[in-house]
Amino acid sequence: MLCGYEFIRSSSSSIYLDVYGKDKLPYAMLGGATFTIIFLYIYGWLITLIGARRTLLVTSLFSSVVIVFIYFAVKSGISISAWFLYSFREAYVVIIIEQYWSLINSTLREDQAKKFNGPITGVGSIGAIIGGFTVGFAAQKIHTEPLLLLTALSLLPAALCSELAYRFGGEPAPSTEEKGRKSLAISLFKDSSYLRRIALLIFLTQIISTVLDLRFSGLVQDFLPIKDERTAYLGMFYGRLNLIAGILQFVVTPILLYFVSFRFIHPSIPIIHVATAVILFIKPNLFTGGLAYLVFKAFDYSIFRASKEIFYMPLSFDSRYRAKEVIDAFGYRASKGISAGLTSFATMISGFFGYMVSGGAYPITAAIGAVIWLLTVTGLVKQHDRILKQY
User: Fold this and answer.
1) I need a surface site. Which of 35, 97, 292, 309 has the fewest CB within 10 A?
2) CB of 26 within 8 A of CB of 341?
3) Is residue 176 part of a domain?
4) Range with top average pLDDT, 61-65, 309-313, 386-390
């Protein structure tokens, strides 16, 4: 799954920049939020109708077919297909990945998760590393568009593996009162301040991710105007990113989760992001832009992901399968779309403010978001500890 995602991530970014340019990138991120809403509605209906196992199979195969259709549209020179490609890529990956984690969170105990969540994300990163470096070496030889077909192909063995995982691990079932629910359990957020806090946490992290992504993408276009050369650079960048994330996942994350308290792990992450955002603001260039984005993503894929998933483990089926999708799929993409839209609006009215709005506002926003993240996660950790004491 993640190997294939690296093919579509680098190629879709490069194709979109080639067709629309960096200034219109926020519109693609808004499209990603829209596609995610549609996907989530279908997901909520499917999981009630055919269950969690078949829903994962259907969404995987459907995504593969859609990507093939978009490939032919891109090859035909249909401009809007570049927008569809970027937007669909934003949606399908989170919907499928969060279904994997719903199964994992329903299968492992919390003490097991502290040992295995890091290596689980690490195994995923092996695929991402292979995918990223493959793009780096192959993009200028086979060109950008054929990489999309490799993404579509990769979803087939991924679907087979997820099917086998359900057969070996069993399919979690909702409680009697949860059966037949067709919504995504939005009412749970009204009753649970814990879920609302997790949602706010994700919203803040993705605001930071978005502004760092926009700044980095803009710098990439400025320094690398040729499409295939840009795709190759992005492939190598994401390959290195996933290599660093893999080291964090296999080595650092299990040690931290086993030996260090949550109350120290979670607050330390936003503090690091404040530092990289300040560096980017002081000295903006491709290196510092890449550094800030790489550090965020490497931590997001490893320490943050592994420790964040533990927040869901004491919760009900609906919280793990329905509310989680709202938070970790819609929350990821909606916050990204909202922050991208606000950034686009700020750019349009920037006038003579120049760099401060078009460039400097990105790291400033990231730093402010990280400070609020620090305050939010501190309270969330305390609430998690209180929930555990009730068991």
Assistant:
1) 97
2) yes
3) no
4) 61-65
Give a yes or no: residue 177 inside a domain. no
Query: Rounded distance, CA 227 to CA 372, Å?
Result: 37
In a domain, 175, yes or no: no
CATH code for the domain in which residue 29 is found? 1.20.1250.20
* DSSP codes of every residue in 109-160: -HHHHHHHHHHHHHHHHHHHHHHHHHHHHHHHHH-STTHHHHHHHHHHHHHH
Q: Is residue 284 part of a domain?
A: yes
pLDDT digits over 124-164, tens only?
888 888 988 888 888 888 888 999 999 999 999 999 999 99
- What are 82-93's pLDDT values in tens digits? 999 999 998 899
What pTM, to 2 d.p., does this model score? 0.72
- 305's enclosing H/E stretch is helix 305-309
Q: How many domains does the chain have?
A: 1
Domain of 321, in residue numbers: 2-170+182-389
Cα 207 from Cα 204, distance rounded (Å): 5
And the tokens for 127? 């695929």
Instruction: Choose among 318, 297, 286: nearest CA to 366.
Output: 297
Contact at 8 Å (CB) between 88 and 35?
yes
Is 309:105 a contact under the CB 8 Å cutoff? Answer: yes
Nearest to 51 by CA among 223, 162, 173: 173
